[in-house]
């Protein structure tokens, strides 16, 4: 049976101040049996004997005190494990743009920075590949990593990274750093993390979490696996099945590694969805490996100023709406332009896009982030859920992207509009499903 925890979405909040697991020490008596002695006078002793003879005596079982010949628990030294895995750990700093509305309804954009964690999982001919959480980088405009190594110049430890691939469904992401951007003496000190298995995790086994706590640098939490198969539900209705550790949770730990006593990664710390103290959650590594394997083999792309266009208008199907109305979560197509790339490929109104070139699509925002990397003329596999006689069925279409019409080229770069403003934007009709599908209510043309 899964345990269910409802928690609030706090963005990249999370995880781990230094905690060392300790056990309370019991005090044991010297003998198996202990008799309490009480001082008494001769007269009091005689009176006690007389009363005892007058009353019926009762016999009670004598309890034995517990005893052990030696201490069963000692303080755990994990320094060797930490030293071994530290060259795999990186800190992640990301910048993103957030829109804030003032009291008068005016919108302003602000650049904000966030700190998180990641760890090295692979290397190809050109890149070093790093695992982290999707929520760490999903809205980022710039990503920088800092390696755990020694260098005379601290700037030599820094390198720019690109988002290679994301998977919102599991909250996983892979970022890539060009090998040419890493100093040779730094690169020689780095190591690829050893991935273990989470299939046979047991409550009580060692769980060491390492990450960028509070954005102040790498710290370590040594504890245990405290629960398995915990269902985490966030405000938008999304659910993740993860395991729980007893480590404290602090901002910045997201994307860090959780290792066992052998230094093998058993989970990826996922602190973006916490609202409690002294507990953290990890994505089981056996769940993460197939997703990461797909992401590391994707082509690393740069975002394009003028990306491809399918000629469709979508609204988001939030996780809440999906659960309540039994509608697949994704990007709902409610308009397909005539003679557009989408229509030519076979997309129809009512289809729900759930995949784009192998990436899970859980909202129109996710679709927008993905299509921004694809140029006009490219053919992309688009996976949809289409309603049939027996409910929704999965279908796949190859869509050859086209160039966007002039009046739509800059729409996705503009701040999101509420529905009552959307009619004033060319190509953005009012959302006919407002209040039904949730989200921020705005539509998107792709």
Key structural traits:
9 helices; six-stranded antiparallel β-barrel; seven-stranded antiparallel β-sheet; Thrombin, subunit H; globular; 446 residues
Layout of secondary structure:
Blueprint lengths: L2 E4 L35 H13 L24 H7 L3 E13 L5 E17 L3 E7 H4 L2 E8 L10 E10 L4 E7 L5 H4 L18 E7 L5 E16 L5 E7 L11 E3 L5 E5 L10 E5 H12 L11 E2 L2 E6 L1 H7 L4 E7 L4 H5 L6 E5 L2 E2 L3 H8 L7 E10 L2 E10 L1 E2 L15 H4 L21 E2 L1
Describe the protein in words.
The chain is α+β, with helices and mostly antiparallel strands. It has 2 domains: 1-21 and 77-298, Thrombin, subunit H, CATH 2.40.10; 308-445, Pdz3 Domain. The chain is 14% helix and 35% strand. It contains 9 helices and 22 strands. The chain has helices spanning 42-54, 79-85, 134-137, 184-187, 285-296, 319-325, 341-345, 364-371, 419-422; strands at 3-6, 89-101, 107-123, 127-133, 140-147, 158-167, 172-178, 206-212, 218-233, 239-245, 257-259, 265-269, 280-284, 308-309, 312-317, 330-336, 352-356, 359-360, 379-388, 391-400, 402-403, 444-445. Strands 15, 16, 17, 18, 19, 20 and 22 form a 7-stranded antiparallel beta sheet that branches. Strands 8-9-10-13-12-11 form a 6-stranded antiparallel barrel. Strands 2-3-4-7-6-5 form a 6-stranded antiparallel barrel. The protein is globular. Mean pLDDT is 77; it is low at 1-43 and 412-442.
């Amino acid at each position: 049976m899964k345990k269910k925890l409802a928690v609030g979405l706090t963005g990249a909040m999370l995880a781990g101040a230094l905690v060392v697991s300790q056990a309370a020490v019991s005090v044991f008596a010297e003998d198996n049996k202990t008799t309490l002695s009480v001082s008494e006078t001769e007269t009091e002793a005689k009176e006690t004997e007389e009363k005892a003879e007058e009353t019926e005596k009762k016999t009670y079982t004598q309890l034995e005190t517990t005893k052990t010949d030696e201490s069963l628990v000692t303080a755990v030294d994990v320094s060797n494990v930490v030293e071994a895995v530290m060259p795999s750990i990186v800190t992640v700093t990301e910048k993103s743009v957030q829109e804030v509305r003032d009291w008068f309804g005016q919108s302003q954009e602000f650049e904000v920075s966030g700190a998180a964690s990641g760890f090295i999982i692979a290397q190809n001919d050109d890149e070093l590949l790093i695992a982290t959480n999707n929520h760490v980088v999903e809205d980022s405009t710039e990503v920088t990593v800092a390696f755990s190594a020694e260098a005379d110049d601290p700037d030599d430890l820094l390198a720019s990274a690109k988002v290679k691939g994301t998977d919102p469904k599991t909250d996983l992401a892979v970022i890539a750093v060009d090998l040419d951007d890493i100093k040779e003496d730094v690169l020689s000190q780095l190591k690829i993390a050893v991935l273990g298995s989470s299939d046979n995790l047991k409550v009580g086994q060692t769980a060491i979490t390492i990450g960028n706590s509070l954005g102040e640098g790498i710290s370590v939490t040594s504890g245990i696996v405290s629960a398995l198969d915990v269902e985490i539900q966030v405000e938008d209705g999304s659910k993740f099945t993860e395991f729980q550790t007893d480590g404290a949770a602090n901002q910045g730990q997201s994307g860090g590694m959780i290792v066992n006593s052998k230094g093998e990664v058993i989970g990826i710390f996922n602190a973006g969805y916490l609202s409690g103290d002294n507990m953290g959650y990890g994505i089981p590594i056996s769940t993460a490996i197939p997703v990461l394997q797909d992401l590391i083999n994707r082509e690393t792309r740069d975002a394009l100023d003028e990306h491809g266009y399918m000629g469709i208008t979508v609204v988001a199907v939030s996780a809440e709406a999906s659960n309540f109305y039994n509608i697949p979560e994704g990007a709902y197509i409610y308009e397909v332009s005539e003679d557009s790339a989408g229509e030519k490929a076979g997309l129809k109104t009512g289809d729900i896009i759930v995949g784009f070139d192998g990436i899970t699509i859980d909202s129109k925002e996710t679709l927008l982030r993905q299509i921004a990397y694809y140029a006009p003329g490219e053919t992309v596999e688009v996976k949809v859920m289409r309603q049939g006689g027996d409910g929704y069925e999965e279908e796949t279409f190859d869509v050859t992207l086209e160039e966007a019409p002039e009046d739509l080229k800059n729409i996705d770069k503009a701040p999101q509009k509420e529905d009552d403003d959307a009619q004033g934007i060319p190509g953005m009709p009012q959302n006919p499903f407002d209040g039904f599908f949730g989200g921020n209510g705005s539509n998107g043309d792709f």
